[in-house]
Design goal:
Layout lengths: L2 H8 L6 H11 L3 H11 L3 E8 L2 E7 L1 H5 L11 E2 L15 E7 L12 E9 L4 E8 L22 H7 L7
Antiparallel strand pairs: 1-2, 1-6, 2-3, 4-5, 5-6
Helix pairs in contact: 2-3
């Protein structure tokens, strides 16, 4: 899957399994391989995953999602699919589906009012459901303070303290 050609196929296109199936067919690869290539190019916070028996088999976050803390650590623990998700077995009514739910359902650190878009594809021949989780841009959890500025508690930042004591500037 040459990156330039792949990018030309997916740029300016809404994420969907139709788009990913087109790419998989074009490059003669599996749908999962196309998903994993696409996640490298996804501009927003995005997670792709595979689900079986209402548990996440594997998940991959793009850089924007990972840095913001939106990832599913499937190597460390078994992660159940939230019951409100369209990827939960009792909610899978069609082969492909799109749903909007609060991001809090999947990621407890996200704000309660932040939306998340789920896109699912049921691959019956393999007994799994493939999914895409699309999050809006992260809301800043901290802010950069100007030099010698203090926060609401009157304390200066650690970086400013180091600089004031003559240590190397690490900004």
């Amino acid at each position: 899957m040459p990156m330039d050609d792949f990018r030309a196929q997916v740029d300016a296109e809404e994420p969907s399994f139709d788009l990913l199936r087109h790419c998989a067919k074009r490059y003669d690869v599996s749908l999962m391989a196309a998903m994993l290539k696409w996640i490298e190019l996804a501009p927003k916070r995005t997670i792709v995953l595979a689900v079986r028996d209402d548990h996440v088999l594997w998940a991959r976050s793009n850089r924007a999602a990972f840095i913001s803390g939106a990832y599913l650590a499937t190597r460390k623990m078994t992660i159940p699919v939230p019951s409100a998700s369209i990827m939960h077995s009792r909610n899978c009514k069609t082969q492909t589906a799109i749903n909007k739910i609060p991001a809090f359902v999947w990621f407890r650190k996200e704000p309660v009012d932040m939306p998340l878009t789920e896109i699912s594809f049921v691959a019956n021949q393999y007994g799994i459901t493939l999914g895409i989780l699309l999050l809006p841009d992260a809301q800043p959890r901290y802010w950069h303070q100007d030099k010698n500025e203090t926060d609401d508690t009157g304390l200066e930042s650690t970086i400013d303290l180091f600089e004031r004591r003559g240590q190397t500037n690490i900004r």
